[in-house]
Structure formats: C-alpha cells, structure tokens
Amino acid sequence: MELVAFMIALAIAYQALKGYRLTKQKTLWYVHFSFAVLSAGLLIDSLAGLLGIVARTLRGTIAFTSIGYSIYFFAQLLAYSILIYAYVSQTRTLNTPTSPVLVASLCGFATLQAAPGIVARLLGSMIEYHPGSEILLLFLVFYVAVQTGTNYSVTKDRNALLVFLAFLLLALSHLFFILQPIGPLLFVIGHLLQLSGFVSFLAMLLRVTRSQ
Questions:
Q1: Residue 24: its H or E element
Q2: Tell me: the pLDDT tens digits for 104-145?
Q3: Helix (H, G, I), strand (E, B) or coil at 124
Q4: Enclosing domain of residue 117
Q5: Torsion of CA 42, 83, 118, 44, to 10 degrees
Q6: Model pLDDT for residues 4-63, shown as the tens digit of each residue
Q7: Burial of 203 (0-12, 13-18, 19+ CB in 10 A)
C-alpha cells in the first residue's frame, strides 16, 4: 500500500505547488514541501520493502525494512513539523493567543530534547510501525488536526472541511498503527484510513486549482 500512498502523496505535492503558483498562498507552499518529503519517504520505504522481499536471509530482510521505515519515519516527522510551523506562523500573523495544544506540543518537544535517553527508549528498535514512533507521529498530526478543525469551525468552508477530514483520518491511521499488535486487521484499516486522508487532501487541492 506504500506505493499507492506514494503516488497520491506525490500528486498532492504537485497540486499544492500548482495551487501556490496560482494563488500565492504561502500555506500551499508548505503543503507542497511537506508532501514532497513525505512522498520521498514513502518511495524509499517501498523500495526497501521490495529489497527485503528479495533478500535471501532473514537478517537482510529485517535490515532493509528497518532502514526503509527509519527513513520514512523521519520523513513523516519533518513533514508534520513543516505543517505545524505553517500553522504557528499563521497564528503569529493573526496575533492570536497561543493555544493550549501548542503549549503542550512545545513542552513535549522540550522534554524530548532534554532527555535523549527517553527518546531512544520510546522509539525502541526502528521496526516497521513501532508503537513508540507512531505515538510521536500521532502527537504531531493530532495538533494539525486540531488547528484545521478550529479553522473549519470558524470559516465553515468546504475546502477547510476536506483539510480537517484529511488530518483527522491521518491521525486515526496512526492510532490504528499503534493498536495493530492487537490484530492484523487494524494494520490494514490504518492503511485504508491513511489513503482516505490523502485522497481528501487531494480533493481539496483539485477544488482550489480548478476554481482559479
């Protein structure tokens, strides 16, 4: 499913760049950059997975999948951080008070930076969809979902709704990845939710570019 997610994420990056060129909205530039990074991570993870399949030894399979997921994890970390920066910049521009969720996010990052040993224990071995790493990603994407939900509650705009649904679905996908040790079906549902989130985001961008 990573290859399908890669193609959709790449389409999102392209449409966001196209939308930025048409509207000059800086947020679309951040979306383009973040999904370009995300699509690169998905591609590398997919290729590493294929190499892991053709590897002749179990050690080789584990090594390829671990390296692929590690790169994909840090790509997600960077992509979500870019989106958070975009919304923090909007908040500063509007001179609005810092939200409690943002305060919690900053405190969380400060804690992680101050205690690298905790980070190592949290992430554990970088196996695919490790619950520790997925908790960190859920924390980041949940913040973006809250911000986009707040934006929709104010504007009642259909495009804002699609963005909110996209990040809500992505947050739910990470939640299901965390719970996937309970049963393999949750892992499949997580991927379907991720793809649905990407499709929702792509639908919003297509609406923006077609309206120009």
A1: none
A2: 444 344 333 444 344 444 444 445 667 778 898 998 999 889
A3: coil
A4: 2-211
A5: 10
A6: 899 999 999 999 999 899 888 888 899 999 999 999 999 998 888 888 777 777 777 778
A7: middle
* CA atoms of 81 and 67, how far apart (whole Å): 21
One-letter identity of residue 22: L
Q: Angle, nearest 10°, between helix axes 2-23 and 184-211? A: 20
d(CA 43, CA 40) in angstroms, rounded, equals 5
Number of domains in the chain: 1
Q: Give this prediction's pTM.
A: 0.80
Length of the chain: 212
Cβ atoms of residues 124 and 132 within 8 Å: yes
CB 27 within 8 A of CB 90: yes
Q: Quick check: helix, strand or coil at residue 127?
A: coil
CA-CA distance, 186 to 109, in Å (whole number)? 28
**pLDDT grade for 68, boundaries at 50, 70 and 90:** confident
Could you give the CA distance from residue 167 to residue 140 in angstroms, rounded to a whole number?
10
CB 203 within 8 A of CB 158: no
- The distance in angstroms from the start CA to the end CA of the chain is 33
Cα–Cα distance, 34 to 26 (Å, whole number):
13
With CA atoms as reference, report the closest residue to 111 among 74, 145, 139, 141: 139
